[in-house]
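Exam prep: given the inputs below (a chain plus glutamic acid), describe the expected output before reading on.
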Amino acid sequence: MTSPSASMPEVVTRFAPSPTGFLHIGGARTALFNYLYAQRHNGKFLVRVEDTDRERSTEAAVQAIFDGLSWLGLFADDEPVFQHARADRHREVVNELLERGAAYRDFTSAEETGRLRDLAKAERRTFESPWRDRAPTVDDLTQAHVVRFRRPLPGQVVVEDEVQGTVSWANEDLDDLVLLRSDGAPTYNLAVVVDDHDMGVTHVIRGDDHLNNAARQSLIYDALGWTRPTFAHIPLIHGPDGAKLSKRHGAQAVHEYAEMGYLPEAMRNYLARLGWSHGDDELFSDAQAAEWFDLAGVGKAPARLDFDKLAHVNAHWIRLADDDRLAKLTLDVHLARGHALGPDDEVRLTRALPFIKDRAKTTLELADQTAFVLKPRPIAIEPKGRDLLAGEAGERIGRLRDRLALFESWDVFALEAELRVFAEEEAVGFGKIGPAARAALTGGSTSPDIAKTLAALGREESLGRLNDALQQTI
Ligand code: GLU
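Solution:
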């Protein structure tokens, strides 16, 4: 834990997820905004795991958050803070609030509180604890109780939100929230304030479902004489149909996007644009995002997930990605699909990638389009392919095989030229060669044009496949 001091950077942001079993796409976007804002201002980006719900916060759930963040490349500048481990400090601050008269002990039983709350509701007034203005006796103090915040009355709390603008609440309408439960457990709003303060957080950027908490938290800051952070409450992400993102929209977890074949840099690019804009820029690098990101560019309206746009952004980043890296990712997809790896598969895959990466929107599509290189010999030729190889066309493939068997310089440009010469000699258009050659070389799978297919497969494999096909079909 870093305590605020003169050496702290001017901007400290944080991502404070509650572990729920996975990193939600909305959480990922919140993390990214905090990360970019810190980068933009040469500040620090911190992560705090809000693991006070001990039942949900299993080790696996916490790990899922870290895995999601590291897949996205959003690394914190310090070790993560675990909220649960700070309960003593939270209680210490509650004592300070009690000493300042800004909190009080409430001995009302849970049952009675429920009754009084219902009554207040029926009478359309805010629930007030009878202990707000009642001093406990020494005897009372031995009884179970909660500690409540004593909000200033009358009054109002005004939050200058960087996204929502000026928002105000009458203190009357908020209730005296519980700070410590009767078992001594600190509550969420208290813990957030104490942790953000102690971590030196200057900017709280989070979903606008927390806007009301900003009112409550601001009052706690004020009561402690602490400087409030700047708040920025960003609209939540909606599904393509405009409804709040929910299970029914599918893909909620970041790892699902990885499984759907999106690259982390594409997700960063796409998520940055989800609710934030910099002019008309759609495709930009991490460095540009870090240079441009500001809260003024965050819109007030909820952003909609748009899978076509995501695919477009992903296709862009696939084109720019390094072939070796793409080969590994594509290989992983093939392995996940149950393909047993042959000794030359990775080499062939890497050779194929430059020919197909311009046409794929996801790594799943890269896998679809590279399936032809991984087929073990002899590959089965589909009936349609057999038809293509029947008769004259098959004889021509035989002549092509003979010609290529004498051909040594196996690069794509030389192969293209050689195929052109071959077509001229045969006095046929390429349409008479391509489909039959593809049937022989791939068994009928999709593949790039023939010179590229030959180049990707390599000389020995290409000749072997042509021989196998000719033996099967002639
Ligand atoms: N733990 C809260 C959540 O996951 C966020 C709290 C905050 O950002 O202040 O929704």
